[in-house]
Amino acid sequence: MTVEDPLLTCYCLEHCPDNHVNNTCTTHGKCFTEIINDPIRGVYHTSGCFGPKEKSVMLCKKLRPHIQRSIECCQTHLCNKDLHPTLPPTTAFPETTMMSTSILKDSKYQIALLVSITGFAVFVCIAFTLLYLRCKRKEAKRKYSAIMQLQDASYIAPGENLRDLLAANQSSGSGSGLPLLVQRTIARHIHLVKQVGKGRYGEVWKGCWRGEAVAVKIFVTTDEASWRRETEIYQTVLMRHDNILGFIAADIKGTGSWTQLWLISEYHELGSLHDYLKAYTCNKGIMLQLAYSAACGISHLHAEIYGTQGKPAIAHRDIKSRNILVKQNLTCVIADFGLSVRFVSDRKEVDIPVNTRQGTKRYMSPEVLDDTLKQETFTAFKQADMYSFGLVLWEIASRCNSLASVDEYQVPFQNIVASDPSFEEMRKVVCVEKLRPTLPNQWTCEDCLMTMSQTIAECWNSNPERRLTSLRVKKTLSRLIDGTFKQDNCA
């Protein structure tokens, strides 16, 4: 029979049995306290009881290489309270030390290897990027040089003039505008001679290209929308017409400090219809020629030409004597399309430009002034044009010298409103008081002027639906010229 060791009471921490009381346990073996240095958890203490059978197992258990630990035992009541084991020095565990050193060396090697690989990869990426950018710059330089050579060399033959270029382009069926490269080439070699006009949009200059006179309309940068719209309209397919100002080129010129928007067109020495009527009177033949040619231009503008290379219907929206130019043969051309609208027949929509600029208030129709114009209907824009054209016809007829006396030239409503009338002022005169320029009674004494008077009155009728169309006015003036109204003396 074996005599058991006395029953001891020990402190326990983390090694307490299920029947422990107030962190104490009982055993016939020994009490112990242990200190452990774990790389994950750090340094911590444990205590408890173990029996005689566990004693040799606990003390002889092989240490894990990556953990340091030390155990002290005692065999009296609560004796492990005063036990304070210490961790052995690192050298006491050569296997652990070697393993830690090996792990540390491996870790440093892996980090160094990773840094080297990453650095090499970054270097390769940078090298390829620089090489790619260098190739792209060379390619861009090559293309730019080729373009400049085309522009500066033989793209426009030395002997070619503007008439040849425009005629060749028109016969190709590509529309009204020259190829963009040709336009830029022309614009780069224009010499500005003198300023011939100025307006809200900018300035008009007489220029010279290869000895030929051209007009250069220079827009201010704040009116870029008008420049873009006018360029678009001029380059519309089948836009070119004897009574539409001949468009040549458009270009943006400038450097980092300044920018100019150029629109280059044919130059007409006589200037605008306003300037011509102010300087000269005209006989009935010239009056009809001016009126008829202007009507032909507006009629071509308003007409839609069907076909794969067709022309959309266009409304001008700013018809006035200053926007009509006079050629040397005393026929007119329509100019200034910065506010024009197009009718997109496929979608039955009106293409209205995004433009803050307004038309000329003096020539605005009643429905524009009182804001009743139906913008979704393209016909409404053409009817507004015809009201304005009625005022222009009145200006032309007023300078006809077939009567005994001719009044000084006046713009419409000159004796009624200020030189720069307000919108509200014009609305009151035109819409409320329904006033129009005076049609002299003596016009009724001449069959030709009487017909002009009737045509003018029908153009500026307050009811848009009752106004004449541009085609009707064109036919009426054509008959006057041909003398089919029993007024041979009008021709």
UniProtKB/TrEMBL annotation:
Domain GS: 160-189
GO cellular component: plasma membrane; receptor complex
Chief localisation class: membrane
Cofactor(s) listed in the protein's UniProt record: Mg(2+); Mn(2+)
Record carries keyword Transport: no
Catalytic activity: L-threonyl-[receptor-protein] + ATP = O-phospho-L-threonyl-[receptor-protein] + ADP + H(+)
E.C. no: 2.7.11.30
One Pfam match: TGF_beta_GS
Top-level lineage group: Eukaryota
Membrane-crossing residue ranges in chain numbering: 109-133
GO biological process: cellular response to growth factor stimulus
Location(s) in or outside the cell: Membrane
Record flagged with keyword Signal: yes
Keyword tags: ATP-binding, Kinase, Magnesium, Manganese, Membrane, Metal-binding, Nucleotide-binding, Receptor, Serine/threonine-protein kinase, Signal, Transferase, Transmembrane, Transmembrane helix
Residue ranges of domain Protein kinase in the record: 190-481
Residues binding ATP, per UniProt: K217
GO molecular function: ATP binding; metal ion binding; transmembrane receptor protein serine/threonine kinase activity
Family classification: Belongs to the protein kinase superfamily. TKL Ser/Thr protein kinase family. TGFB receptor subfamily.
Name of this chain's protein: Serine/threonine-protein kinase receptor
Record organism: Meara stichopi
